[in-house]
UniProtKB/TrEMBL annotation:
This is CBS domain-containing protein. Signal peptide: none annotated. PROSITE patterns: CBS. It comes from the Bacteria. Residues 8-65, 73-131 form the CBS domain. Keywords: CBS domain. InterPro entries: CBS_dom (IPR000644), CBS_dom_sf (IPR046342), Diverse_CBS-Domain (IPR051257). The lineage of its organism: Bacteria, Bacillati, Actinomycetota, Actinomycetes, Kitasatosporales.
């Protein structure tokens, strides 16, 4: 059975909720990613920020990315999946919440990776991928 651990891009990194968006953007550039999971002081997932969040919700809104924190942009309940969850569970989670990136958490509730659309495209059949795209972008 294919699991979330098989699908994910390993080595995802947190950014603390207290870190500035300047630093978040720098880390995204260094890691060549468009999204970062945000952690609370106990290294628990409290949200995800994207490069688009930084541009639209901070810079374009006239806020200072040097003074705005990653935690300031986190909204709602963050979604995640267990590393041992099957591919059907991964797809169901992403489709039902219409999300394109999903943090993968191990049995100790620690971040071990991220699943993105590109990861799915490498693994899913054409039919599975088409169904995913239709549901997420509907």
């Amino acid at each position: 059975m294919t699991t979330a651990a098989d699908l994910m891009n390993p080595g995802a990194q947190w950014i603390p909720a207290t870190e500035s968006l300047d630093r978040a953007a720098q880390l995204m550039r260094e890691l060549d990613v468009g999204a970062l999971p945000v952690s609370d002081p106990n290294e628990r997932l409290c949200g995800i920020i994207t490069d688009r969040d930084i541009v639209v919700r901070c810079v374009a809104a006239g806020r200072d990315p040097g003074k705005t924190t990653a935690g300031d942009l986190c909204e709602g309940t963050p979604r995640w999946i267990s590393s041992v969850a099957g591919v059907d569970d991964v797809l169901a989670e992403m489709e039902s919440h219409q999300i394109r990136r999903l943090p993968v958490i191990d049995e100790n509730k620690r971040l071990v990776g991220m699943i993105s659309e590109a990861d799915l495209a490498r693994t899913l059949t054409d039919d599975q991928l088409a169904e995913f795209v239709e549901r997420v972008y509907a």
